[in-house]
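[step 3/7] fold_predict: job queued, chain A
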Amino acid sequence: MSCDIVRDGLTRRVGWLLAAVVAVQLTSCGSGQGFSGAKVTSPGEGAPSGTVATGTTRWERSAAARPAFNPAGGTYTSTQSVTISDATNGATIYYTLDGTPPSTSSTPYTGPISVAATTTIQAMAVASRHTSSAVAHATYTIHASTPPSVAETPVFTPAGGTYASAQSVTISDATPGATIYWTEDGTTPTTSSTLYTGPIPVGFGLQAGDGLSVTIQAIAVASGFANSGVGSATYNIGFPPPATATPVFMPAAGTYPSAQSVTISDATAGAMIYYTVDGTTPTTSSTPYTGAIGVTGTTTIQAIAVASGSPSSAVATATYAIQPTGAGWVAQNSGTGANLNAVSFVDANTGTIVGDSGTILHTTDGGRTWSAQTSGTTSFLSGVSFVDANNGTAVGTGETILHTTDGGVTWTTQDAATPLTGLGSFDLGGASFLDANHGMVVGNDYAQNESLGLPVVLRTTDAGATWTVPISSFLGYLFGSRFYGVAYLDANTATVVGAETDRPDCGDCTWSLIMGTTDGGATWHTQGPQTAGVSLWAVSFIGKDIGTAVGDGGTILRTTDGGTTWNAQTSGTTSALHAVSFVDANTGTAVGSGGTILHTTDGGSTWVAQTSGTPNDLSGVSFVDANTGTAVGATGATVRTSTGGQ
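[step 4/7] structure written:
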């Protein structure tokens, strides 16, 4: 190799040795310092472009390397991250994406460029002692890949369902050229499952009375398509089809202050509804339901639904009582034919009824609807006392005491027998509670021996977890007497009413009986007049002083001094009065046989008969205020007033 040195217009060729000496003096000769094929010119000569002056010489500069792209330009199916590099040491790269040539005013390259759409990148490199590089170009074409279509899900014919006889099931698919694979063993089908080639027999060969349930699952596979979703159909062969759903009434049965427009619906598709309003059981010959039924008075609607291929539904029944404002007493539908013996309401909406055969009914809507609760007994329940919506006690025959702390959702039997071990079987007839823990129940054991029976009084201070017998002075001599009602007024004060029988002065006779205690039952004293031939069935107190007792022959007795004296009041009836409820010193209601209802607003100075609307004996009554009350009685009779019976 050699360098050409031009001096004074003369060119000389020197060998490597001279070149090396010149390199030491003049920096270098060769490409290692950015000069290639350089020549030195005298100052008089014009220095060409791309040269560097050194003393009286000029050296030519080489261009920076062209930038390189990675990945190379081309067509791609996804976004690319493009890097640009350059072989020239210290080179700075500038690039554009908008089609204009790059310059040192363009965007400097600092890191990978994300290319999500078709883009042309142009780049140049600039380095010290080098001229700018040639422009590099790379075009990236982005074609996002399209996922394959999914094959249609297979379809079964006939559709899954319940069938009386065997079925041949075909499977089809709308995807052109699809192949179907299926299973019937509960596993998810794959391309390794059974290839579908023709109808699948289901239920053939079953014996009479046998049943079979089979679930077929299938997928479709086709070229150029993703595998389909799993299709599934269950076939119940030999089972009877489900019955048509029971019709539903809207609004629900109950007592309403105005006429109602009742609609009937059914959950079974295509079902026809037939109904009656005359008490007869509906059939397909009854009136077909076509629209809302107007109810302007007490009406019972019964309905059935019929659907093709299914048995008829059960009969649905709803009774609507229309009670206009000021209508007095209006019948409610208790939903039972059992005799109802006592009722306890804690507010206008929440109440409980007890009756024969362990019957317990509960309402939270003022008696528009009554729901039966599970008592766990078949005893005759004759008394009930609730202190709030949750805590209540019911009593009855056979030493029965039931207690609830959840509004009757569950009833628990309590031990009444242990405190009276040796007394024999006894019945309880009345219950009265001060609060959730403190209460008293009364009854008698005359079911064991009527002539030698004794009255029974039990008291609890722990919500019935334990019951005790108050030490009483009367148990020793009131053989054959019976207690039916109790008013527990405070921890020390209580009044019980009933009847004294088998008195020495009259033999087999009955006398009214009232007894009171002011020391928690340690001692008891007979109160008021005793009337021959009369049993007293119930007592109601306002405070400790004002009380009213009712009984046979229309008997009403009143005290205003805590029982020191009792005075007879004129009831205007000879009917037996079985229950009484006062809400204040003046306002009270008594009920009795033959649907008798008496009402007072002056503390019993006058009693006014009201129309109950029922001929049935009434055995229980509960008022929560001067206007709102409920009475119950024989064969499920339930009547209610929101106007004080007026």
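[step 5/7] annotate
The first strand starts at residue 3 and ends at 7.
The helical segments are 16-26.
exit 0
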